[in-house]
Design goal:
Blueprint (H helix, E strand, L loop, with lengths): L1 E6 L5 H10 L7 E5 L2 E5 L5 H12 L4 E6 L4 H15 L4 E4 L5 E4 L1 H7 L8 H4 L5 H7 L7 E5 L2 E9 L5 E6 L5 H11 L11 H14 L5 E4 L6 H10 L8 E5 L5 H9 L17 H4 L4 E5 L6 H13 L1 E3 L6 E3 L3 E6 L3 H7 L4 H7 L2 E4 L9 H16 L6 E2 L4 H6 L5 H15 L4 E2 L5 H14 L3 H19 L3 H7 L4 H11 L6
Parallel strand pairs: 10-15, 10-16, 11-12, 12-15, 17-18
Antiparallel strand pairs: 1-3, 1-4, 2-3, 5-6, 5-9, 7-8, 8-9, 13-14
Helix pairs in contact: 7-15, 7-17, 8-9, 12-14, 15-17, 20-21
Bound molecules: adenosine-5'-triphosphate (ATP).
Length: about 500
């Protein structure tokens, strides 16, 4: 049983409360003192002893109430931290000041194939000098390449005063996202969402309206367009901003794990379960927001359980018989066409309507016109700062390729292209050949998609005008932007049927 004692703070009262506990014969698993509160976790405490203890505690001068609680605040914070670490798809390690592992998240454990707590860094990484170098520099080193379990990763160390460091390992193809992590350190809410294009302005204006309405919100858009960023921004300006924002990626976990992550499990639910059960994200985020990413991948069974929660705010933990009621706002996101999934029968229609009370559509990068350049330049500055190289710039010659690319991986792909260029290019001016994008454009052409120079130039011209038209929606504006005559643009717009298909 877990008990919460509230008292009026006075000298010696906590000792008197503790003396009452010490005088009784039951096991104490944890005691948390947060004056004017004491929280007690006593697993073997029976109902009869509890009554007698309650009387005794209420007899102490200043004690105001003795109530039962589900979980101690410190335990709740630990579980929230575990949930945050588990949600990180990047391997994360906390190490002490001697370079020994204190804790590792599930992604790190999966990568090295064992629980590494207690081991020195030399036992994990292939580089025998890494531990010494990190300690000698007080864990203050620029991001650099390491090798763990045969994989090349980028290691980012964040020193923690007098307590070692937090080490994060990034897959090289996810490194660009590190930039936005840096960016988020400073920008809050919608300021983190870069872009001035009409498409992004419309999104931000609408998002700011729906963020404050306390109802489920479905965010749709292609992969890497910033759906999670939008969800975080919505939480940050909502009335729930002081409560947790916890995320679950529905595509990353098998059904049973996703169920216990989201709904928690009851005491003794299955062999190996944590004593006293485990709170799920819904309970941990009470009063806050739960973000269900890739909600289209949710299994039919979980869809049914989530529907019930959205209908009446209640659910049961796995293996539990008690109804739990929490007050959580559900934000969800998907890159899938949910309406189509509903018509094909792979997503519940009733759940779709519950999740889709409010809706946001995040536009693909290729529809954001000049935002591509704005973001590319911004990411370039961040990349240079991050890898501690002198500032470099994108040569104007890269612009047509950046604007003309289809960006199937959207902002995430753009971040990666820019970061790689910043890491590889030795000149202060990054040119087209330094961008991976140049290769992909050429590959497309080599693949025989175009038959002649005229057709290739035509495709490029059409693509460029389509992109630019979103930011410069008239032939006059476009002509000024491209420094050509109004009639040259008007002829081309007619030729390519722009804006007809935009
Ligand atoms: N408008 C933006 N301004 C700055 N950074 C952005 C913007 N949009 C996206 N990003 C960055 O792009 C990366 C991908 O964004 P995010 O994870 O939010 O996309 P997503 O749509 O949720 O992706 P997925 O579909 O894969 O879950 C992140 O690093 C994010 O910070």
């Amino acid at each position: 049983m877990r008990i919460h004692v509230t008292f009026i703070d006075r000298v010696g009262i906590t000792q008197e409360v503790l003396a009452l506990l010490g005088g009784r014969s039951f096991n104490l698993d944890a005691v948390e003192m947060v004056p004017p509160n004491v929280y007690i976790d006593a697993p073997t405490l029976g109902a009869d002893v509890l009554e007698e203890l309650r009387e005794a505690l209420l007899g102490v001068k200043g004690v105001q109430a003795v109530t039962l609680v589900d979980i101690l605040p410190g335990q709740r914070r630990r579980l929230q931290l575990d949930a945050l670490l588990a949600a990180s798809i990047d391997p994360v390690l906390a190490v002490d000041d001697r370079g020994h592992v204190l804790l590792a998240n599930p992604a790190l454990i999966a990568l090295c194939g064992r629980e590494p707590a207690g081991e020195p860094l030399t036992a994990l990484f292939d580089d025998p000098d890494l531990q010494r170098t990190l300690i000698e520099h007080g864990y203050r080193l620029p991001m650099h390449e390491v090798s763990l379990a045969g994989q090349t990763l980028l290691l980012d160390a964040m020193p923690i005063t007098d307590a070692g460091a937090l080490l994060t390992l990034y897959q090289p193809n996810r490194i660009g996202e590190r930039l936005s992590a840096l960016h988020h350190d400073h920008a809050e809410g919608f300021d983190a969402l870069l872009g001035e294009s009409p498409a992004i302005r419309t999104l931000k204006a609408r998002a700011q309206r729906v963020a404050t309405l306390d109802a489920p919100l479905l965010i749709q858009g292609e992969t890497g367009t910033g759906k999670e960023l939008v969800a975080r921004a919505c939480h940050a300006i909502s009335t729930r901003r002081d409560a947790p924002f916890l995320a679950l990626n529905c595509a990353a976990l098998p059904e049973s794990l996703a169920e216990s992550e989201l709904f928690g499990y009851a005491a003794g639910a299955f062999t190996g379960a944590q004593r006293g059960g485990k709170l799920g994200l819904l309970e941990l985020a009470d009063q806050g927001t739960v973000f269900l990413d890739e909600v289209g991948e949710m299994s039919p069974y979980l869809q049914a359980k989530l529907l019930r929660f959205l209908s009446d705010g209640c659910f049961r933990r796995v293996g539990g018989d008690r109804e739990v009621k929490v007050n959580v706002r559900i934000l969800s996101a998907t890159h899938r066409d949910l309406e189509k999934m509903v018509s094909e029968g792979s997503f519940r229609e009733d759940l779709f309507y519950r999740l889709n009370v409010l809706n946001l559509q995040v536009p693909p990068l290729r529809e954001r016109g000049h935002d591509i350049l704005l973001m590319a330049n911004h990411f370039m500055q961040q990349a240079c700062a991050q890898i501690q190289r002198p500032v470099c710039r994108l040569a104007p010659g890269t612009y047509p390729a950046l604007l003309g690319n289809r960006w199937p991986g959207n902002v995430r792909q753009l971040q990666n292209v820019i970061f790689r260029a910043a890491a590889i290019c030795e000149n202060p001016l990054v040119d087209i050949d330094d961008l991976d994008i140049a290769r992909t454009t050429m590959e497309r052409q080599n693949a025989g998609e175009v038959g002649s120079l005229e057709a290739a130039v035509g495709d490029f011209e059409k693509n460029l005008l389509e992109q630019l038209y979103r930011s410069y929606p008239s032939s006059r504006l476009l002509a000024a932007r491209l420094q050509t005559s109004h009639s040259a643009i008007a002829i081309r717009l007619r030729k390519y049927g722009i804006p007809g298909k935009l």
